[in-house]
Design brief:
By secondary structure, this protein is α/β, with parallel strands linked by helices. Helix content is 49%, strand content 11%. A five-stranded parallel β-sheet has the order 6-7-8-5-9, with helices on both faces. A four-stranded parallel β-sheet has the order 2-3-1-4, covered by helices on one side. α1 crosses α7, α14 crosses α15 and α21 crosses α22.
Length: 651
C-alpha cells in the first residue's frame, strides 16, 4: 500500500536555527550531498540549553521533502539522548527502518564503546560564525546584517537569539534586547581601590611614573567638572620584559588615582570556553568596568590577543580577527566609555594589532625598562621596609645587574626569612648576602674575553657612528644556573635614524659583528656568546640582512614578500637565492669589520684590559682610554692609523 502524503506548511525559518543549520551543513556535507547514503551521526552540543536549536536546524537539513517509506513510516530521524553511557539497544530500537539519523547528546558524558561501533560520525557541533549569521539573514530575506551585529550574535547563546527572534522583529530591536539582557547578568563584585605603594613611592618607572601622576590630576579635574573626558588620556600600553613590575604599576596607579582596578587577560576569557564564551566574557568585563567608572581596566599579556596583520594561513586567523574586532569595539565603542582608562601590558608590542594603538584607544606606548643600579637599591629598600646599608650598596648593584623588580622582591623575602630564622629583628647585610643566589666568579681570562668582545662593538661604533656610543660594561660573575647569554653590553643612543637607508643597515650589521671579529683577532676564534638566542649578535644581523632583502627592497628586486619574522625565516631556508644574498651581505660586513679592527688590534687589546679593571665605561671615558692607548701604540709603531671617523660613514 502506498500513501499520497501531503506536506504540512513549512515551519518559518528562524535566524538562530538557520545559522546553526549552515554550520551543521558544513560538518555533515559528505553525507548530505550523497542522497542515497545511510548514516547515523552522533553530535555533541557544548551548551545543553542550546540543543533544541540544533535539533530544529537538523530537522530542516534531513526532514525536508518526502522522507517516508511506502508504508508511511519516516525514514529519517532527529533525536536527543542522554543514554550514551549504557547499552546501545534503546538507540538501536529507535533506529529501526531509519536511513538517516542525527542524534544529539551533551558533552559531559562519555560515549559507550558499543555506541561508537554503530554510528558513522561523531562530531562536536560548531557554533555559527559571524559569516553564518550574515548568510542566514540573506537566506531569510532579511535586511543585510552588519559585521559588528553578526559578531555580537555569534558570541551569544543560541537559545537567547532563538527566543529574541521567534517573531520577525527589526534586527536593531533584537540587538538592543539582547544587549540589555546581557548587561543584567550578575557580575563579579566591585574591587576596592588597591592598597600598597603609590606612584610617588615607586622607583625605576621613569616616564610611566610621570604619566600616571598626570593622569591623577586629569581624573581629578574631570570629576570636578573642570575638563571634559575628551581631554583625558584613554589608555596606555606598558611594554617591558617579564618581572619589571607592569602589574605593580597598574595597582600603584589605581591607588594613586583613588579608583578601582579591574584586571583581566585573554587567557582568563579563553578559559570560559569556545569563541562565543570568550567574547561574552570580554563584553561582560567591559560592561562591568563601565558601570564602576571612574576606574582602571588592566589587560595583562595584551599581545596575546594577536594582530590581524599577520596571516598564518591557518584556521585560527578568523578566530583571531573576531577577537581583535570585538576588543576594538569594547575599548573604543561608538558611544564612548567615559571614566575608564585602559592599561595594557605586553612583552612584545609588535604582536599587538596596530588599530588598538590608535588615538582614543591605547594611544600611548611607554617602555618600562629593567631598573638601573640606584633604582634596584631603592626597590630592594622598599621591599625590605628600610634603606639598604651603605656597606652593601655597591655589592648589591654589582650582584643584581639585569634583575627585575620581581627578582628583587624575591631577594627581600629570602633575606627576611634568613633574618627570622636567626632570631633577628632587622635584615642585615649578612642576611642579604645569604639570600643572594650562589654566583660563579669569572676568571681573569673570561673577563678579558668579554671585554675584548664589548670593546670590538664600541670601537666600530665610534669609527662608523661618532658620538652615538653611550657606554659599555662587563659582568664579573653570574648566578649559578643562569643560562642568560648576556654577560656584558655596549649601548648606543640611536640604533637607526628615522628613515634608515641601506648604508645604515650595513653600519649596524658591521657594529654587531664587531664583538665576534674582535675575539677572532685577539684569540684566533670566537666564543658561543655571539649566538644562541634571538637577541644574540648573529641572530640580529641575520634578521637585519633578511629584512634588507625581503622587506625594504635593498636586494635584487623590489618585491616585499615577508610580513612576519616567521615568514622571513621560512623564506630564508626555502629560497636559496634569499639565503645566498643574506650570506653575501653578512660576509661583506664581516670583512669591513676586520679591515677596521685589524690595524687597531693593539689598541683594542689595551682598552679591553682597562675595561677588565674598571668593569664599566661611559662614552667619554672610553674615548679617553682610546686616546691614551693610541698615544702608547703610536710611540711604538708610527704607522698605526689614528682613531678617526671613517669618511662618508657618519649617520
Amino acid at each position: 500500500m502506498s500513501y499520497d502524503l501531503r506536506q504540512l506548511p513549512p515551519v518559518p525559518r528562524n535566524l538562530a536555527a538557520t545559522a546553526a543549520e549552515l554550520a551543521l551543513r558544513r560538518q555533515l556535507r559528505p553525507f548530505l550531498n550523497r542522497k542515497h547514503v545511510s548514516f547515523v551521526a552522533l553530535v555533541s552540543v557544548e551548551d545543553a540549553d542550546d540543543r533544541f536549536v540544533y535539533e530544529e536546524a537538523a530537522r530542516r537539513l534531513i526532514e525536508e521533502g518526502h522522507h517516508y517509506d511506502e508504508d508511511g513510516n519516516a525514514s529519517v530521524m532527529v533525536s536527543a539522548t542522554n543514554d550514551i553511557e549504557g547499552r546501545p539497544w534503546s538507540i538501536i530500537r529507535k533506529l529501526k527502518d531509519i536511513r538517516r539519523s542525527i542524534i544529539f547528546h551533551s558533552m559531559d558524558k562519555p560515549i559507550n564503546d558499543d555506541v561508537q561501533l554503530m554510528v558513522d560520525l561523531v562530531i562536536e557541533a560548531d557554533r555559527p560564525s559571524p559569516r553564518h549569521f550574515v548568510a542566514a539573514a540573506r537566506l531569510m530575506g532579511l535586511p543585510a546584517l552588519s559585521r559588528s551585529n553578526a559578531e555580537f550574535l555569534s558570541a551569544l547563546p543560541l537559545r537567547k537569539i532563538r527566543l529574541a527572534t521567534y517573531r520577525r522583529r527589526p534586527m536593531e530591536r533584537v540587538i538592543g534586547m539582547l544587549s540589555k539582557t546581557l548587561s543584567k547578568e550578575p557580575e563579579n563584585p566591585v574591587e576596592l581601590v588597591p592598597r600598597g605603594p603609590t606612584l610617588e613611592t615607586l622607583h625605576g618607572y621613569g616616564e610611566a611614573r610621570e604619566w600616571g601622576l598626570q593622569l591623577r590630576r586629569d581624573l581629578a579635574d574631570w570629576q570636578d567638572g573642570k575638563i571634559a573626558w575628551a581631554d583625558v588620556d584613554r589608555g596606555v600600553l606598558l611594554v617591558g620584559p617579564p618581572g619589571v613590575g607592569k602589574t605593580m604599576y597598574a595597582e600603584a596607579l589605581a591607588h594613586t588615582c583613588g579608583v578601582p582596578l579591574f584586571s583581566a587577560s585573554s587567557g582568563q576569557w579563553q578559559a570560559e570556553g569556545h569563541l562565543g564564551d570568550m567574547l561574552k566574557a570580554m563584553r561582560k568585563y567591559f560592561a562591568m568596568v563601565s558601570r564602576n567608572s571612574p576606574c582602571i581596566a588592566f589587560l595583562d599579556e595584551f599581545d596575546s590577543f594577536g594582530t590581524r596583520a599577520i596571516k598564518s594561513e591557518r584556521d585560527n586567523d578568523d578566530y583571531k580577527r573576531q577577537v581583535v574586532n570585538a576588543l576594538l569595539e569594547c575599548v573604543d565603542p561608538s558611544g564612548g566609555r567615559e571614566g575608564v582608562v585602559v592599561i595594557g601590558a605586553s612583552n612584545n608590542p609588535s604582536a599587538v594589532d596596530q588599530a588598538l594603538l590608535r588615538p582614543g584607544r591605547l594611544e600611548r606606548i611607554i617602555q618600562i625598562a629593567l631598573p638601573n643600579g640606584e633604582a634596584r637599591v631603592a626597590i630592594l629598600g622598599h621591599h625590605l621596609g628600610a634603606s639598604v646599608e651603605p656597606l652593601s650598596r655597591d655589592e648589591i648593584i654589582a650582584s643584581t645587574h639585569g634583575w627585575s623588580g620581581a627578582e628583587l622582591a624575591k631577594l627581600a623575602r629570602d633575606a627576611r626569612r634568613i633574618c627570622r630564622r636567626r632570631g633577628g629583628v632587622a635584615v642585615t647585610d649578612a642576611d642579604l648576602k645569604g639570600a643572594m643566589p650562589p654566583r660563579r666568579i669569572f676568571t681573569e681570562d673570561e673577563r678579558f674575553r668579554i671585554a675584548v668582545h664589548e670593546v670590538g662593538h664600541a670601537m666600530l661604533g665610534q669609527l662608523l657612528q661618532p658620538g652615538n656610543l653611550e657606554g659599555l660594561r662587563i659582568d664579573t660573575s653570574r648566578a649559578v644556573g643562569d643560562t642568560a647569554i648576556e654577560i656584558g653590553g655596549t649601548d648606543f643612543k640611536l640604533v637607526f635614524p628615522l628613515m634608515p637607508v641601506e648604508e645604515d643597515f650595513q653600519l649596524r650589521i658591521t657594529v654587531l659583528l664587531g664583538g665576534m671579529v674582535a675575539e677572532q683577532l685577539v684569540f684566533g676564534g670566537h666564543s658561543t656568546s655571539v649566538g644562541g638566542s634571538a637577541a644574540s649578535d648573529l641572530a640580529q644581523v641575520t634578521r637585519l640582512a633578511t629584512m634588507m632583502e625581503l622587506l625594504y627592497g635593498f636586494g635584487d628586486n623590489l618585491i616585499a614578500e615577508a610580513d612576519s619574522e616567521a615568514t622571513m625565516h621560512r623564506l630564508r631556508w626555502a629560497d636559496r637565492g634569499v639565503s645566498r644574498a643574506v650570506k653575501v651581505r653578512l660576509e661583506a660586513c664581516r670583512r669591513r669589520a676586520i679591515e677596521l679592527l685589524e690595524p687597531r688590534r693593539e689598541i683594542l687589546d689595551s682598552v679591553a684590559r682597562v675595561l677588565v679593571d674598571e668593569k664599566e665605561m661611559s662614552a667619554e671615558r672610553f674615548s679617553e682610554v682610546v686616546e691614551e692607548a693610541e698615544a702608547t701604540v703610536r710611540g711604538l709603531h708610527e704607522d698605526v692609523f689614528n682613531m678617526q671617523p671613517i669618511d662618508g660613514a657618519v649617520l
